[in-house]
Design goal:
Blueprint: H1 3-16, E1 21-32, E2 35-41, E3 56-61, H2 68-77, E4 82-87, E5 90-92, E6 97-103, H3 110-116, E7 123-127, E8 141-146, H4 151-160, E9 166-173, E10 187-194, H5 204-211, E11 219-226, H6 227-240, E12 248-254, H7 260-270
């Protein structure tokens, strides 16, 4: 494909990309003490694609007190709202209900602040979704690891696995009460690690993963969370276990001390 034809195709793909939807809250509440689930419903979800659990999406956050009309005007003409990356936790096509889980940080960040106060009838902007991180399950053994920020993608991956899948799932949570019910295969051994202060560094996931009896056969991973943890685990999997890149989904979702925009700049700089 030539440069011009490739550019033309890219422009066409962007042109076909739908603009942000404005979604309406139908209910919201605490899933656990430190996790909020917000459920959206309405005609804006009429053509929402199925099978996108675990996929990234962009949430565009209205300002406190902003009207829906004013927000819609900003989406089309600017200035752009604050944007944050989240995960599709579930979509019920029969009821046309979309669920997204938010880590509860109180009013510390714009998305958490919005979710903490969300009531039926509230709204936000939604762009996406992308495709899920794991779409093919072909391994003999699976390794899943997540902190609270990545619990939705980890849970979605576990729920999509074949029912005879085997492996280990590691969840680092803020309090024992933050354990969630996840419909994972019976052959997945779950470990819930409590780390009360997410803003302090933790090696608990790495320590546990290093202590595992590594299985023979093909291994696939779904690992996401704080960038310092991810950096250490990526080195372990690539250098010590020599896992093929195609079998290794591992991603830094946030970094201690940085807001999302700053973290994304660091990720781009690191390549």
């Amino acid at each position: 494909m030539g440069v011009l034809s490739g550019l033309k195709q890219a422009v066409q793909q962007v042109a076909k990309r739908p603009g942000p939807r404005i979604l309406t809250v139908t209910r919201a509440g605490r899933l656990t003490p430190n996790m909020i689930r917000v459920v959206f419903a309405g005609p804006e979800l009429d053509d929402f694609p199925e099978g996108r659990e675990g996929a990234n999406c962009k949430l565009l956050i209205p300002e406190p007190g902003e009207t829906r009309d004013a927000f819609a005007a900003r989406l089309s003409a600017g200035p752009a709202p604050v944007k944050r990356t989240y995960t599709v936790r579930a979509y019920d096509a029969a009821r046309q209900e979309l669920s997204i889980d938010f880590v509860a940080h109180g009013d510390e960040g714009p998305a958490s602040r919005w979710a903490s106060h969300a009531q039926p009838g509230d709204f936000l902007g939604f762009a996406g979704p992308s495709t899920p991180k794991l779409t093919h399950f072909e391994a003999d053994w699976y390794l899943v690891a997540a902190d609270p920020s990545a619990l939705p993608v980890a849970a979605a991956a576990l729920e999509a696995m074949p029912r005879d899948a085997k492996g280990v799932a590691i969840f680092e949570i803020t309090a024992p009460e933050d354990r969630q019910e996840i419909d994972m295969p019976a052959g997945i051994e779950a470990h819930w690690l409590v780390h009360p202060d997410p803003h302090s560094a933790s090696t608990a996931q790495e320590d546990l993963i290093r202590s595992l009896d590594w299985p023979a056969g093909r291994v696939q991973t779904c690992i996401a969370g704080e960038s310092g943890v991810i950096r250490a685990l990526r080195a372990f999997l690539a250098q010590e276990k020599a896992l093929p890149r195609k079998d290794t989904y591992i991603s830094g979702y946030w970094k201690i001390g940085l807001v999302e925009d700053e973290h994304q700049k660091v990720k781009r700089a690191e390549g």
